[in-house]
C-alpha cells in the first residue's frame, strides 16, 4: 500500500541479494527491513561485538514488528520471524560478503576516509553488476563514488531512524548515475515498504538540509539559556505537532552524527552562520555523551 509518484520505465534490475556494510543503528535497521521484505541480507561489520549487538537489537525490534503485523496470530508471526532471521547473515569480512550481492548499502560511520577505504575495497571484489549505494547523512555521493570505477552503478539511499518505522527513503542520483541504477534503487526502496523521494546530490539532500539546521538552532537556544531542554521539546511537540522535540531528537540521532554534518558543512561554507560550531554540542561530544546510544546526551537514559 506504499506508493510513490515517481514513474518507472520497464527496465528491470532485480535486487534480491543485499549486503549492508556497518552494524550500527542505521545498518542494522536497513538490514532488518530488507530481510523482512524478502531480500537475502548480509550484514557486515569489522567487529564481532557490534554484530552480536546488532543481531540482538534486530531480534527485539522484529518482535515488535511481528506483534504489530500479526497480533494474536502466533503461528504466522513465528513463521515471519523465523523466515526473516533466516534471511540475515552476519560477516566480519567485507571481501567474502559481496560475491553474490546485487546491491551494497554502505552505512558505516560518517568518516570520509573510512568510507573511501570501504568503497575502494568493495569495488575491487564486487561483481560487475553490483550497485553501490551510500546511506550517508551529510557527505555528497560523488565524493564517495569517485574512488570507484562504477559511477553509473552508484547512488544514494538515505533511510531514517528508526528504519522499521520511518516511511521515507531519499534516493539520490548523481549526473553519472544511470537511469537503470536509479530506478533499481527506487524500486528497492519501495519494495522495502518506503515512499521514495528523489533528491539531487546536494549537501543534506532534502531532509537533513532542513532538519539539521533546525536541530542545531534548538541547541543554540538551549546554550543561550532562552529555554530549558524540556520546554523546547514540549513546545515543538505540542506547538508544532512533531513526534519528538528537537533536543530529544538530537539525542536520538546521535550528537556525533549531528556534529559531523555541521562541521563538514562549516568547513565548506565557513561564513555561513547556519553551520557555525556550537560549544555546548562540542563539549558533550568530547565527553562521550552522544545521546541515547551512550546512555547520556542532553538527557540521561537508562542503559539497556
Ligand atoms: N522497531 C520496531 N518498531 C518500532 C521501533 C523499533 N525500533 N520503534 C518504534 N516502533 C513502533 C512501535 O511498535 C509502535 O507501533 P504501534 O504504533 O503500532 O504501536 C510505533 O513504532 C510507535 O512507537 P512508540 O509507541 O514506542 O513510540 P512513539 O509513538 O513515541 O514513536 C518514534 C517513536 C517513531 C521514534 C517517534 O517518536 C518519531 O517518529 N520520532 C521522530 C524520529 C525522526 O525524526 N527520525 C528521523 C531522524 S533523521 C535521520 O534518521 C537521518 C539521519 O541521516 C540523521
Automatic annotation (TrEMBL):
One of the record's GO molecular function terms: (3S)-3-hydroxyacyl-CoA dehydrogenase (NAD+) activity
Xref: SUPFAM superfamilies: 6-phosphogluconate dehydrogenase C-terminal domain-like, NAD(P)-binding Rossmann-fold domains
Pathway(s) it belongs to: Lipid metabolism; fatty acid beta-oxidation
Residues given in the record as NAD(+) binding sites: 22-27, 45, 110, 115, 137, 161, 293
Domain 3-hydroxyacyl-CoA dehydrogenase C-terminal, residue spans: 204-301
Alphabetical UniProt keywords: Fatty acid metabolism, Lipid metabolism, Mitochondrion, NAD, Oxidoreductase
Pfam family, one: 3HCDH_N
Domain 3-hydroxyacyl-CoA dehydrogenase NAD binding: 17-201
Primary location group: mitochondrion
Family: Belongs to the 3-hydroxyacyl-CoA dehydrogenase family.
Protein name from the UniProt record: 3-hydroxyacyl-CoA dehydrogenase
Organism: Helobdella robusta
